[in-house]
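Predict the 3D structure for this chain.
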Amino acid sequence: MPQELPTQEQLDAFADDVARELGTHCRTAPLPEYSRGLARLIVDGDGRAVHLCQPHDEQPSRLKVYAALPDEAQVQTVMSLDVV
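Done. Predicted structure below.
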């Protein structure tokens, strides 16, 4: 059964766990410009970023993952996945 992340605090904790697994130069930050649901940003020491977004309250196990380069260019591929 997929894990559900129904609150911002739970998504923040999940993002912190992901950042820890990615390495010591990763940190998390709020993503205030994302207003449709829950979101958190993971940034590495070189400025690359992963955006974790949960756009729908009725599907708390679904995440959208975006990647961005240091110059803010957004990678074209968007993944949508179930959190397990």
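The helical segments are 8-22.
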